[in-house]
Amino acid sequence: MTLLKRLTNSPKALVFSYLLLIVISGAIYWQVEVDKSPGDALWWAVVTASTVGYGDTYPTTWPGRVMAGILISVMILFVIPLITAHFASKLIVDNDAFQHEEQEEIKNQLREIRAIVERLAPADADRTGAALDALEARADGTR
């Protein structure tokens, strides 16, 4: 699972996976189709993977058609959504959000402030403590 997360969260890994898929699909197409050059096979893989489908090169054998179906399905169901999700996640990341460590530091500082206030004004400690409790609750809620 960790490897899958690493692959899907890395732009380099996504591009590498895409290119590997194109090369492997092109190589298989070149092997199963008659009278196709490696260049034609690679062109077919790029056009098919991009779902453009110009129609200038297409599979005529059953293994070639199965390969085309697999390539199109993998691109539409996995690769394109992963690329889209990666770029969308970059757009919606909130860089101003507190990290867990920052929240813990704020809560510790509030505890220290509460202790100082209780030492300075014991009579007002209940009211001030309630205000600090409210601040701490807000700090917990920002997660």
Structural commentary:
- The chain is mostly helical and 143 residues long.
- Helix content is 77%, strand content 0%.
- The longest helix is centred in the middle third of the chain and has 31 residues, at 62-92.
Question: Which features characterize this protein?
Answer:
single chain, 143 residues, rod-shaped, mainly alpha
Tally of contiguous helical segments: 6
**Topology order in helix (H) and strand (E) letters:** HHHHHH
Measured on Cα atoms, how large is the radius of gyration?
A: 29 Å
Record field, number of beta strands: 0
User: Runs with pLDDT <50, length 5+?
Assistant: none
Structural class, from helix and strand content?
mainly alpha
Task: Report the sheet with the most strands, covering strand number, pairing sense and barrel closure.
Answer: none
Silhouette: rod-shaped
In angstroms, what separates the terminal alpha carbons? 25 Å
Helical content class: over 70%
Strand content: under 5%
Mean pLDDT: 82
Please give a quick description of this structure.
With 143 residues, this protein is an all-alpha fold. Helices cover 77% and strands 0% of the residues.
SSE map:
Elements (H helix, E strand, L loop, with lengths): L1 H7 L2 H22 L5 H12 L12 H31 L7 H21 L4 H17 L2
